[in-house]
Amino acid sequence: MEVKVKLFATLRDGRGKIVYIPFFDGITPAYILKHLNIRHEDVAILLVNGRDGEFEQKLLEEDYLSIFPPVGGG
Amino acid sequence: MYGYVGKILRVNLTDKVTTVEDLDEKLARKFIGGRGLATKMFADEVDPNINPFDEANKMIIATGPLTGTPTPTGGRYMVVTKSPLTGTIASSNSGGYWGPELKFAGYDMIILEGKSKEPCYLMIEDDKVEFRDASHVWGKVVSETTKQLETEAPEKSRILAIGPAGENLSKMAAIMNDYDRAAGRSGVGAVMGSKNLKAIVVRGSGKVEVADKEQLKAVVRDCNKKIRENGVTGQGLPAYGTAVLVNIINENGVFPTNNFQEAQFDKAEDTSGELLAEKYLVRKDPCYRCPIGCGRHCKVGDIEGGGPEYETIWAFGGDCGIDDLEEIIKANYWCNEMGIDTISVGATIACGMELYQKGYIKDADLDGVPLEFGNAKAIVEWTKRIGMREGLGDKMSEGSYRLADSYGVPELSMTVKKQEIPAYDPRAIQGQGLQYATSNRGGCHVRGYLISPEILGLPEKLDRFSLEGKAAWVKIFQDFTAFIDSSGLCLFTSFAMGAPDYAAMYNAVIGAEFDANDVLHAGDRIWNIERIFNLAAGVDPSQDTLPKRLLEDPIPSGPSKGNVARLSELLPEYYELRKWSTDGIPTDECKKELDL
After folding, report:
1. B232–A69: do the CB atoms touch at under 8 Å?
2. Mutate to test the interface with A, among B456, B462, B484 (most CBs of A within 10 A)
3. Structural domains in chain B?
4. CB-based contact (8 Å) between A8 and chain B?
5. Helix/strand/coil (H, E, C) string of B186-224?
6. What is the pLDDT of residues B406-450, one digit of tens each?
7. How far apart are CA B495 and CA B455, in angstroms?
8. Does pTM surpass 0.90?
9. What is the SS3 assignment for B94?
10. For residue range B322-347, what is the model confidence (pLDDT) as tens digits?
């Protein structure tokens, strides 16, 4: 199983739009960010399955992340 | 006088007479300028029950005290009139360079009265004001009009104009300036068209005096630093413009799709801000003294111009089920040329698509261009037809409410007070829902941008599904925005700055002693004069509501599945916080506190 990680805006630079990280029991968004070399302060919006997520929450199989840097409004 | 230049240009289009009046500084300080002062003066001079196209309806084009000063984004102007779309007060705001030029010519505002017998335009060069024949540009699109008038005007003049949509009295017509900046919403362009006024050309040689130059320099340095260092205003908006929201809003499952039948669009990525920047962006196109520069200038084939903004991409994209960014850029271009609001036009086409889907609109009505969700070829063609009032475009030019109502199903129009709701599904952003329902100009996201705390986490992250504290947040955002809109600054500065920053700039420019509370208090006063005008115009509090679909039909799928807008649970608290009666009327206590 893999966790699908959708990256946006400048976070795509050098990483691509979608990254898959092997799932293991206890995997968290914080682990994934470290793995992708993304600092917490560069994350403005972290969504787990489209809902506000936490860095330290334990992910379940089938969960997906959407990660945005500080970007914008309209 | 500081900040204000102290003069009002009153233009009688019927008799072709102009007069210059002194600005009442006491009144100006009470209502700040721009949206606030113009609304106060409009309400004092115009019968709220006037037909918006009656020549006795007036139009005020007003700058704020910070317009034309060195403050960051100090270049806005506001158009205030009675809206033909909503029947409420209209106040549509635009950037670019026209607003400061009006102040450099020596005027804080222009009051337009009456109606010219023939198409005309106004040429203002400092104290020289002329009425000129506009028959040679009547019927022309905005860029042709602007180019032609540039040849007839002093160098470096700034031009504000309407396009064919304004001439044709489309209730969604905009006023355009500097080619592609728009005072977009509520049909203000149609009121200008009803007066046979095609354009206002302005050239000024003066400047705006400020109370404390040294203080202002320090405050501006501080504010510019905050804007540069903020992720949104310093990085996101400059790099991607507002279009970066496509993916953010869609990932949250609040990206209205197929006329709000769904809330997530599986092809949103194909219309994203990231793609826009990668493939179509020619350059940034910043407004006057703007350190952010969110404005885009994009090109597809031989189509090139300003935009598109996020809301435009949403309206012609997801809301119409369309994933073709090139056609969206073209539709945006044609809105600018026709001089028409991209949000309302896109949303009206989306409504037309649902009416077609459900069998109300027939193939025979469509002259070979089906209004089918996903039909990318429809959006440019129908935008032109709406602007020109051709075929069914005539009925659509009245906006989605009147279109859907003509088939007996007004509930298929996604509007508040007959104005199209923009690009955020309020069923799962509860504060934004309350904001839409109570906006004084009908469906609008920039009367209080609750997306900022509820989605983006600025100034702090709120749970978008929760009701707790939302009524108070909405009131504060609405009041704060009313002040910013009245000051002459751009609302986008508020991603990086707070009320104390605005107070500091205002104080240094005009020589006042405002603190953050004064900023909000002035905004509250402005909010209430708008409300009082609307009530007098017969827009009663029962219209503080949302389309039935958003109140009753849960979002069918995606991350926000199962939610509806819980407006009835928020509205009583909101009225109470505003010190309005339980049925939504400003109380005597409220008016007394606000000195109204």
Report:
1. no
2. B456
3. 7-203 (3.60.9.10), 255-420 (1.10.569.10), 426-593 (1.10.599.10)
4. yes
5. CCHHHHHHHCCEEEEEEECCCCCCCCCHHHHHHHHHHHH
6. 999 999 999 999 999 999 999 999 999 999 999 999 999 999 999
7. 13
8. yes
9. strand
10. 999 999 999 999 999 999 999 999 99
Burial string for B299-319 (b: 16+ CB within 10 Å, else e) reads: ebeebebbbbbbbbbbbbbbb
Q: In terms of Cα–Cα distance, which of B211, B214, B173 is closest to B193?
A: B173
Bridge partners of A48, per DSSP, are: A51, A65
Cα of first residue to Cα of last residue in chain A, in angstroms, is: 37
CATH 3.30.465.10 fits domain A2-68: no
- Euclidean distance between CA atoms B465 and B564, whole angstroms: 10
Decide if B237 touches A, using CB distance below 8 A: yes
Inter-chain touch A47–B559, beta carbons under 8 Å? yes
Contact B445 A71 (CB under 8 A): no
What is the rounded distance in angstroms from the CA atom of residue B152 to the CA atom of residue B145? 11
By CB neighbour count within 10 A (0-12 exposed, 13-18 middle, 19+ buried), where does B412 fall? buried
Q: Which two three-digit tokens encode residue B296?
A: 């885009």
φ, ψ (nearest 5 deg) of residue B198: -85, -35
Strands B303-306 and B296-300: antiparallel
